Amino acid sequence: MACATWLQSSSLSYSYVLFPILSRRARLPTNLRHFHHFYSNRRLCSSKTLSRPPLMDVSLQAKRGFSFKEDEVAYPADLYFEAPLKIVEYPDPILRAKNKRIDTYDENLKKLVDEMFDVMYKTDGIGLSAPQVGINVQLMVFNPVGERGEGEEIVLINPRVNKYSRKMVLFNEGCLSFPRIYADVERPESLKIDARDITGARFTVNLSGLPARVFQHEFDHLQGILFCDRMTEEVLDSIRAELQALEKKYEDKTGSPSPEKIDTRKTRKAVAGFGKS
């Protein structure tokens, strides 16, 4: 089981140097692994500091389809799971399903979080969202170091984005739901978010660099958005064969037609959230 460190401060700030992975293909250099530490008053102190441009209010994205509607609340049955958890792969429709808001903070939720960290480490990931293990609720976990016992294990429940930077960064991402596929995705360098911790307490956090990248990738999953949705057509063409292979794998496994076909995919002009539509 993963032993998580829960974020409980009302105002936290993270920064990290960029490192081109979202699934851990290589170990971080030793001098970059000490991501942060807590003081006795639970105020977080980052070991690295990045200069960040001013953040832009995310409400400006509303015209591009970003939803502020209150989400449906999850029932206990929605959080039911059996260990060990397994990664859901593209093009399974679970990855596109609506994810419900968590309103119950109990031992079952803590066990689910532990299991998510466990499968994340076993699959060499540094971030994981609940829909990626077949549970359609608004929950994500990540550890930018990607090593059990190193760095900090971060849990975000019902996250919302308040602001994001105008500065965009191109970054080579991977995804556990797209095994062995890596491609460039452009996202804002930094952002400010609200979320709840494992006890249900609210907090606000500023993220930049790698933590911001991981958060945005996993937050997209909670919106039913996949990283291939944010790729340019040129980048998408470079991984077309791999996506087709995953579609065929799904058809062979289920005996049903793939719910998505990269060959007939229409450009998603209004993917919710960040950056250029």
Automatic annotation (TrEMBL):
GO cellular component, one term: chloroplast
InterPro entries reported for this sequence: Peptide_deformylase, Peptide_deformylase_sf
Cofactors named for this entry: Fe(2+)
Tree of life domain: Eukaryota
Swiss-Prot/TrEMBL catalytic activity: N-terminal N-formyl-L-methionyl-[peptide] + H2O = N-terminal L-methionyl-[peptide] + formate
Family recorded in the similarity comment: Belongs to the polypeptide deformylase family.
Protein name: Peptide deformylase
Organism listed in the record: Tetracentron sinense (Spur-leaf)
